[in-house]
Design brief:
The complex is a heterodimer of chains A (290) and B (333). The longest helix of chain A has 15 residues. Chain A is of the alpha/beta class. Helix content of chain A is 36%, strand content 21%. Chain A starts with a strand and ends in a 7-residue tail after the last helix. Chain A is built from eleven helices and nine strands. In chain B, strand 8, helix 9 and strand 9 form a beta-alpha-beta unit. With 333 residues, chain B is an alpha/beta fold. The C terminus of chain B is likely disordered. In chain B, helix 4 packs across helix 5. Classes of the chains: A alpha/beta (290), B alpha/beta (333). Chains A and B meet through helix 5, helix 6 and helix 9 of A and helix 4, strand 4 and helix 5 of B.
Chain lengths: 290, 333
């Protein structure tokens, strides 16, 4: 297996950096579908985020000012499939949510990201449960007011999150190439911070959550035939150490290997796994089926 | 020729030797002495570009209203339906489209779910009041929209999944200024509305308040019947389904006699006029916003019912004619 570049797409505060940090811990620990076969030369930005997790905090939102000391990270991987081990490289690009938000607003994407998108093997799309930056579509009352407003300096409200997610899919449809093997590219949708969801929604699973919260995005996902799509609920630590002091104590005493989980729909049943490499393994076809 | 220069940019003393203010060139207070002027010129680095090249950022095509060319391309690849929307300015055309979009965005259209839209951004911008007809309304259907264009006369695309039969339906709904309908009535301006001949259905939007108002009712019926006239004349011989859409019905419900008058009028022209009531936004308690829109869509997209004779009498096909083998629609052997 050769290079398998993944493109990571998500608006600001959608959980990309924290997921990559937790993924790196899982790859180092081994035991999952994917494991690391060495340490990349350039790992500084991932390590910065890992340091936060190890202290029982989430890494803060990635800002543009950090750009200077960041570059894409290439992680050498060992894939374990049917007892056979093969090598691959996972290229995780420099990730920064504002770029994707701007791309939706202006349709412009800086050349380096566009190149990554055009050469990617698969994609991960991130959306975070209950993020303060999530935007609902206007309701009829606000929309009627906005439409009736006749001033020239009409202030635009933010683009609703589900419209942004639909636009991400459109970008992928336009630019993501077919796999060299001729197979459909795979797209993993990661619904992050799953642990803060109420029990009822949590039990219903990630597809039901997307259908309820983002009907346009859910419809678009069903209609896609250029890609295979899987939706994962992700909790990188299994709880919120910043809100729950007791959980933080337990977390800090743990070995970090078994914290967190992913959940996905498998033939109508919600399956849980502690292998946090699964969304990536599936997207790069290291995991054939779920 | 003098080698002096002047601080006044309109002065041509350097070329003509004549001062703009008619001063003696050497004595003019605005003059820049020759040696200073020369130094200034030489100081400019000639190999430096005056302007830096603009950074060429790659772009995605916008998900905006579609032009005629885009519609042709998509319809070439998959079956699509054009739904014409006509009506005077402020008859509620845009509100109806926005309300349909909001219903889909909240998953509240019974029987249908959203599947795709090639003009999602424009729908979204309309719903946030960010797209209006600025000043002069567009004169022609756009061929192709660019991002940053003002609102242009183009088609909004929606792909809906019908739950009853899992059919995916591509709809193209033109977003047109009301003035086009006005000029269709007043000047029979049909050149830019030719696409209506290919429409699956045409919605004629009428403000329910006017139709229910004693003072405006007659005029509104008059204009609506003229519009029906024009549309029939434009589309004959194949007239799409015509549907009178009464908007803002939460604020005014026309009397049945009024509606019957319009139905009768259309019937004289050989048209079976369907009628729908909608409240895109609602001010009335008990009428939720978006009432009637799901029905409007369901009825517009309903599969045609065959009401014809089972085995119609007709001229007998000539022997050997292939049409003799044809089974009438809705019938079976």
């Amino acid at each position: 297996m050769s290079n398998r570049n993944l493109i990571l797409i998500g608006g600001p505060d959608s959980g990309k950096t924290n997921f990559i940090a937790r993924l790196w811990i899982a790859l180092r620990a081994g035991g999952g579908k994917l494991s690391a076969s060495g340490t990349p030369n350039e790992i500084k930005y991932v390590e910065g985020a890992v340091a936060h997790l190890h202290q029982g905090q989430f890494a803060p939102r990635t800002g543009q000012n950090l750009d200077a000391d960041r570059s894409s990270v290439t992680i050498p991987l060992v894939l374990t499939e049917d007892g056979e081990r093969s090598a691959a490289e996972l290229v995780v690009p420099d990730i920064f949510g504002e770029v994707w938000k701007d791309a939706v607003e202006t349709t412009e994407l800086p050349a380096e990201w566009m190149n990554q998108l055009e050469s990617a093997f698969g994609a991960l799309i991130f959306v975070r449960v209950l993020s303060k930056l999530n935007r609902d579509p206007p309701d009829w009352v606000t929309s009627a007011e906005l439409m009736a407003y006749q001033g020239d300096d009409a202030k635009l409200t933010d683009i609703p999150t589900q419209v942004m997610l639909c636009e991400f899919l459109r970008f992928l449809e336009l630019k993501l190439p077919n796999n060299p093997t001729g197979q459909k590219p795979r797209v993993s949708v990661l619904v992050t911070a799953w642990d803060i969801l109420d029990p009822e929604r949590s039990i219903a699973g990630p597809r039901a959550y997307i259908q309820e919260q983002y009907p346009l995005f859910a419809g678009r996902l069903r209609d896609l035939d250029r890609f295979d799509v899987s939706v994962f609920a992700v909790s990188i630590l299994g709880g919120d150490p910043e809100a729950d002091e007791g959980f933080r104590e337990v977390l800090l005493d743990s070995d970090f290997k078994s914290v967190g989980y992913v959940r996905y729909d498998c033939n109508g049943v919600i399956v849980e796994s502690t292998d946090l490499t699964l969304p990536v393994a599936w997207a790069i076809r290291a995991q054939a089926t779920l | 020729m003098s080698d002096s220069a002047c601080r006044n940019s309109e002065c041509t003393v350097a070329q003509t030797g004549i001062c703009l203010l008619n001063n003696a060139p050497d004595a003019c207070p605005h003059r820049i002495p020759g040696d200073v002027a020369k130094v200034g010129f030489n100081a400019i680095q000639l190999d430096e570009p005056v302007l830096t090249a603009p950074k060429d950022t790659p772009r995605f095509p916008p998900s905006a209203a579609l032009g005629m060319d885009d519609v042709r391309t998509i319809m070439g690849g998959s079956y699509g339906r054009i739904i014409g929307v006509l009506g005077a300015p402020d008859s509620g055309k845009t509100a109806c489209l926005v309300s349909l979009y909001l219903l889909l965005a909240h998953d509240r259209v019974e029987g249908f779910t959203f599947a795709d839209s090639k003009s999602l951004t424009t729908f979204d911008e309309l719903s946030r009041g960010a797209r209006r007809w600025h000043g002069a309304v567009p004169e022609q259907m756009t061929a192709h929209t660019e991002l940053g264009d003002d609102r242009s006369a183009g088609f909004l695309h929606l792909k809906l999944l019908r739950q009853s039969d899992s059919a995916r339906l591509n709809l193209f709904i033109p977003d047109l200024p009301g003035e086009w309908s006005t000029s269709l009535i007043d000047n029979n301006r049909v050149d830019r509305l030719g696409f209506l001949r290919a429409a699956h259905a045409i919605w004629i939007m009428v403000d329910g308040r006017s139709l229910a108002d004693k003072l405006q009712r007659r005029s509104e019926i008059h204009r609506a019947s003229l519009l029906i006239d024009r549309v029939v004349a434009l589309c004959v011989p194949t007239i799409p389904t015509l549907r009178l859409v009464i908007t803002r019905f939460d604020q005014g419900q026309p009397a049945e006699a009024t509606l019957q008058e319009l139905r009768d009028y259309a019937a004289q022209l050989g048209v079976d006029l369907a009628i729908s009531n909608i409240a895109s936004f609602s001010d009335a308690v008990g009428t939720p916003a978006g009432t009637g829109i799901a029905d409007l869509v369901t009825q517009t997209l309903a599969r045609p019912r065959y009401d014809g004779e089972f085995w119609p009498e007709g001229p007998v096909a000539a022997p050997g004619s292939r049409s003799a083998l044809r089974v009438p629609v809705g019938g079976s052997l």
